[in-house]
Structures are given as structure tokens and as C-alpha cells.
Amino acid sequence: YGKNTIKFLRLHREGKKHFVKEVEVCAHLRLTSPQEYLEGNNSLVIPTDTIKNIVLVLAKKNGISTLEQFAIDICNHFMTTFCQVAYVKTYVQEAPWQRLYEDGVPHIHAFICVPDGIRFCEAEQCRNGPLVVFAGIKDLKLMKTTQSGFEGFYKNEHTTLPERHDRILCGELFCKWSYGECKDFDFDCIWKKIRECILEAFAGPPDCGEYSPSYQKTVNSIQMLVLSRVSQVQVIEVVLNNIFYDVVDMKNLGLNNDKEVLVPVEAPYGSCACTLGRK
């Protein structure tokens, strides 16, 4: 049991310069005894309101240096404070606030919310077991307008999809990776490096791009690049929800629409998922 969607903004001041982190936290506990379920005995139950207050107090006392460290702080607190806690799992995600720049100069206390993917992390620990940390990015929308196709696929009497050697590749990406046992990592640096790998593998070189024969191959290319460059990642999961666009038929309007005006297909949509780890 636990408390979900604990939302708050943590403001940190260094003189006139301000720093912000707006986060949403979910904290779940498993107790050593199931008596609250089986017998209605609540003597070991930590109220979810208490869980919420602990999260807020930790944010006040410790600050949020990184999402991962904050999740670790929450796990450590419950494990060291409550002997009846057998397992704790913490999820933290961050609202995408970025410092505002004016003519290239960073503003000291103004920020802009940029929806270019949501950073999140998880930490979980069993009593007498290792602390395990996961991190990721979700709701990251990516598009390339060429250098993508889908050909040579299996066909039968139910197949109506035409083969395409030049199409728009667009999708909403979810990526989650495991660090394995918790170590003293520079979580911010690693997260930024993995995000750069995702963008590079999806888009290819800036002057020419890289051809994608399928959403599946793009998913695997992202995973392989991350594993080759980021040694701290043990397992990486990528889900790419496809966003399709249909070319608008403008013949009745007396126009030839050469893939210049398209409309998104809201539903149904495809999805490709793969989990890849080291040997």
C-alpha cells in the first residue's frame, strides 16, 4: 500500500539565483505481516498521510540533488525508521521546467516548461537486500519526415497495408533502464548522455539522417547505442508508440498534395517494445 501522486515544487535559492524541481512521487510499502489485510489489525500500518508528510519533510531537509538520490533517500528513510517495513518502492518524475534564456543570457529566477520528455526514476529495496535503481524518460515525441520505410513484411488475405520506402516516422517514446545495484553514479550526467543516444540513434547524422526499415529496428538501434556507450546501464526497455499521418486527398480541390498536408491518425496506433540487457 502507499501514497500516489504526491506533487510539490522544491525551490532552492543561492543568493539571487533560484533553482526549481517540480516532482510527483509515489511511495509504496510492504509490511512484514499481512495482519491489516487478514485481521483488520492496523497496529503496524503507517498511514498514507504520514508517508506523504515524510516525503515533503525529506524534500525540505535534503533537497533534491537528483531524482535518483531523492528516491534513494525515501527508501533509506523507511527502511531505517520502521522495522515493520519489508519492502519499499519509490517512483519520482519531474515536470520539464527549464531555465529561461533571454538573448542567450540565463535568467536568475524565470523558467519555461518545455514538453520534450519527462524524466523519471524508481528505487526499490527489500530488507537485507540491495537497493536497486531504475531511471528513464517518457512522453518523448520524435519525428523524422523521411529516411524511413516499411517493406517486405508478411502478407496474406487480410493485408491491405501498402509497402512504403519513404514515409514519416513519428512516435512517442518510453525508455527505462536499470543500473542494477545502487552505486555512486552521476545520475544527471548519465541521464543526459542516454537522452543524447536516443536522439542520435533515432535521427542519424544531421546532414543526411539514417534509414529506418521499421519501428522495431529503430527501437533496437536506440538500445544498442545506449549499451555501447553507457556502461552503467544493465538492462534497457524501449517502447515506441507509433503515430501515423495520412496524406490528405486534394484532388477534388484541384490540387496535387505531394505529402505536404497530412493529418494524424488518432486510433488505433501501433506499438513496438523490446527489453535488452547485457549477458
From TrEMBL:
<feature type="binding site">
    <location>
        <position position="242"/>
    </location>
    <ligand>
        <name>O2</name>
    </ligand>
</feature>
<dbReference type="GO" id="GO:0005777">
    <property type="term" value="C:peroxisome"/>
</dbReference>
<comment type="function">
    <text>Catalyzes the oxidation of uric acid to 5-hydroxyisourate, which is further processed to form (S)-allantoin.</text>
</comment>
<feature type="binding site">
    <location>
        <position position="48"/>
    </location>
    <ligand>
        <name>O2</name>
    </ligand>
</feature>
<protein>
    <recommendedName>
        <fullName>Uricase</fullName>
        <ecNumber>1.7.3.3</ecNumber>
    </recommendedName>
</protein>
<feature type="binding site">
    <location>
        <position position="150"/>
    </location>
    <ligand>
        <name>urate</name>
    </ligand>
</feature>
<feature type="binding site">
    <location>
        <position position="49"/>
    </location>
    <ligand>
        <name>5-hydroxyisourate</name>
    </ligand>
</feature>
<feature type="binding site">
    <location>
        <position position="167"/>
    </location>
    <ligand>
        <name>urate</name>
    </ligand>
</feature>
<feature type="binding site">
    <location>
        <position position="242"/>
    </location>
    <ligand>
        <name>5-hydroxyisourate</name>
    </ligand>
</feature>
<feature type="binding site">
    <location>
        <position position="48"/>
    </location>
    <ligand>
        <name>5-hydroxyisourate</name>
    </ligand>
</feature>
<feature type="binding site">
    <location>
        <position position="216"/>
    </location>
    <ligand>
        <name>5-hydroxyisourate</name>
    </ligand>
</feature>
<feature type="binding site">
    <location>
        <position position="242"/>
    </location>
    <ligand>
        <name>urate</name>
    </ligand>
</feature>
<keyword id="KW-0560">Oxidoreductase</keyword>
<dbReference type="GO" id="GO:0006145">
    <property type="term" value="P:purine nucleobase catabolic process"/>
</dbReference>
<dbReference type="Pfam" id="PF01014">
    <property type="entry name" value="Uricase"/>
</dbReference>
<feature type="binding site">
    <location>
        <position position="49"/>
    </location>
    <ligand>
        <name>urate</name>
    </ligand>
</feature>
<feature type="binding site">
    <location>
        <position position="48"/>
    </location>
    <ligand>
        <name>urate</name>
    </ligand>
</feature>
<dbReference type="GO" id="GO:0019628">
    <property type="term" value="P:urate catabolic process"/>
</dbReference>
<keyword id="KW-0659">Purine metabolism</keyword>
<comment type="pathway">
    <text>Purine metabolism; urate degradation; (S)-allantoin from urate: step 1/3.</text>
</comment>
<dbReference type="InterPro" id="IPR002042">
    <property type="entry name" value="Uricase"/>
</dbReference>
<feature type="binding site">
    <location>
        <position position="167"/>
    </location>
    <ligand>
        <name>5-hydroxyisourate</name>
    </ligand>
</feature>
<feature type="binding site">
    <location>
        <position position="150"/>
    </location>
    <ligand>
        <name>5-hydroxyisourate</name>
    </ligand>
</feature>
<dbReference type="GO" id="GO:0004846">
    <property type="term" value="F:urate oxidase activity"/>
</dbReference>
<keyword id="KW-0576">Peroxisome</keyword>
<comment type="similarity">
    <text>Belongs to the uricase family.</text>
</comment>
<feature type="binding site">
    <location>
        <position position="216"/>
    </location>
    <ligand>
        <name>urate</name>
    </ligand>
</feature>
